[in-house]
Design goal:
It holds the Pfam family Tetraspanin. It is built from eight helices and two strands. The chain is mainly alpha-helical.
């Protein structure tokens, strides 16, 4: 087999592999930041003796390491292809095999354990804790309002949560008008506001987004593992092609007799 064909294919596959590694690492950091945006607003006194790590907190780290390992291994792959070094290609194939196992395992664990009711319960408990904090802490209320605007949600379970202790919806539950450089002002935010009443609670919306993020990261991890398997096949093919190219040509019997004569 020609050296050039597997070399080009491996280079392309490694490029795609690197792009997906970067995407997984970036998405996991984004997911961690979204979870932290909620957890940092909780009442810390409620969690002084709680040392548990819940799935929405663990999943970002799990996929971050998948992306990190992918980037590390892809560097070895590029070096092996450019230098046509059989030793580096062998190391690359072995490392890729480990990454495939890790990526598939992370995806399976996330889909089986994290994409479940336990994530919904964690998000709901966190949102309710933050919601109760808004009653006594204006900074938390402002931060929760930013979340409500971003997720287009209202209250913890539903907009009705505000009816027990407020005279009207907070502005974050209603649409606002923007006029260039002028400050935005809200539409009438009374409890008769139809748009605000139709919004879902933030616990429901956040839990759905968390489930979607887990599925997307898992899918990207499995696809990356599939690309890695093709990369392993190409690396082995390139290594064999290099071996044939560098192997000395066989000496025929007639030529050896001429040398002896």
């Amino acid at each position: 087999m020609s050296v050039q064909v597997p070399k080009v294919v491996l280079y392309v596959l490694n490029t795609v592999y690197t792009v997906f590694g970067l995407a997984i690492a970036a998405a996991s950091i984004w997911f961690f930041c979204q979870v932290f945006e909620f957890t940092r607003l909780r009442n810390s006194n409620h969690y002084l003796l709680d040392y548990s790590v819940y799935w929405p907190q663990a999943v970002p780290w799990m996929f971050f390491f998948v992306g990190f390992f992918v980037l590390m291994v892809s560097g070895c792959g590029f070096a092996g292809v450019c230098r046509k070094n059989r030793g580096m290609l062998t190391l690359y194939a072995v490392a890729m095999s480990l990454v495939v196992l890790f990526a598939v395992a992370a995806a399976v664990v996330a889909l089986v354990f994290a994409d479940s009711k336990s994530t919904d319960d964690f998000v709901k408990d966190t949102v309710w804790d933050v919601y109760f904090q808004t009653k006594n802490d204006n900074e938390v209320a402002d931060a929760f309002g930013i979340i409500e605007r971003k997720l287009h949600c209202c209250g913890a379970d539903s907009p009705r949560d505000y009816k027990n202790w407020k005279n009207e919806f907070p502005i974050s539950c209603c649409d606002v008008y923007y006029h260039g450089w002028l400050e935005p002002y809200a539409i009438d935010c009374e409890f008769t506001n139809k748009l605000a009443n139709e919004r879902h609670g933030c616990s429901t919306v956040a839990a759905q987004y968390a489930r979607i993020a887990i599925k997307v990261l898992s899918g990207a991890s499995i696809f990356t593992a599939f690309i890695a398997i093709m990369g392993i096949v190409c690396a082995i093919s390139l290594s064999k092609a290099l071996e044939k190219k560098t192997r000395p040509p066989p000496v025929h019997e007639s030529e050896s007799k001429k040398v002896l004569l």
